Amino acid sequence: MKNTLLRLERMRKSWTQQQLADFAEVSLSTIERAERGEPIRVDSIQRICSCLNKSPEELGLLKTGIPLEDITGSLNPEDNDMHRRKALQLLGITGSSLIISTSSATIDLDELETLFSRKLARLQEWVLEGLEDGTRLRWQLYYTSGNTLTEDGLRNQIIKLEQLADEGGPAHAKICRVLAQNYQLAGSLARDKFHYTMALDQFHKAHIAAEESQSFDMVATAVARQGLALLRQENVEKALALYRNACQIAVKADPLTKAYVTSGLAEALARNGLRDECYRTLDQAELLFERAQGVPLEEDFSYVRLSLQSLEDSRGECYVLLGEPLKGLEYLQTAAESLDQKISRNYCRLLMQQAEAFLVAEQPDLCVQYALQGLQIARMIESTSNINWSREVYMKLRTSKWKNEGVVSELKAAIDA
Known about the structure:
By secondary structure, the chain is mostly helical. The protein has a domain at 4-52: 434 Repressor (Amino-terminal Domain) (Orthogonal Bundle), CATH 1.10.260.40. It is built from 21 helices and no strands. It has helices at residues 4-12, 17-24, 28-35, 42-52, 68-72, 80-90, 109-144, 147-151, 154-167, 172-192, 196-213, 216-232, 236-249, 255-271, 275-291, 308-321, 325-338, 344-360, 364-380, 384-398, 406-416. Helix 15 (275-291) packs antiparallel against helix 16 (308-321). Mean pLDDT is 84; it is low at 64-80 and 83-107.
């Protein structure tokens, strides 16, 4: 079936297929396949959505199939016969002659039920694959695009996964893992908006779903992300306790998850003033990351997106927090040189970290320069937390000995704009 939504949006802009391909940085054949309704790569979906500033659903690029409630209906036992007939019709089974190769006029209901169950299981698997693709795409959008694009349709996706999880079945563990991934994304978005109660609730749900999926990686990251939300609330002691718990859980997790949780523990230690343990923990995180080298991106089920750059970033921030801003700046600037700037959220955070470091190092001009760059990207990706970070930098400058400097007024004007 042709994708008229994408074609109409392209025509609304008066673009040719080639122009859309050029603007989205994909091949012409990718656009042609997408408009024919054929599947395309997740990264191509991301580029097209970013180019047109639309969600995958709005462009017809993310299809999760027929909602299961439309197939199975209610769970009222009195309606079973009606829903069975409806489901068989939707699955293309209009009569027993299409299913059972027999000359008998008598229908074997047990055999019909067995074949129906197999069809439904295959359909559930197909729906789950679509939801898994949608989850992967939304996490990519979270790291590279705006919050609105990431959040659009996320709630509906979670509802569908919750319905699948309630039904149980052989794919239950995988469904719960994908559901935990979605809860963690919803929690990260809520945390970024300072909706901390909502964020902690989503991370708690992720913890429960992850335990049902029997994934130590997902459980560890759910607990660690709860800790990060508490760090942002400056509840540093409770955050430290959660990070220690996450590290204990991560003992049975993959090295990449261990490294991610351990680097988070280092920040919690720094914010609690535990210098020596913080530095030892940073060293441990780097060793764990070395063991994780070569892990394909598609196997990062927790979507931690950990890299050597992010570890240098963490080390730099810890040095700044522990009163060594110049040493911290060395690591932050090294991290900036190796960062892929397409990962907008990480780049924005790194700019704000450098602004803080220059402030502690008593270099207000460079502090404001980096804060302005970070603010610009924060607005582009709708990152409330980083926008607020620029305000915090301004408030510190306003109460400092540089409060009458022109650069301070320049930052205030940008914030107020």
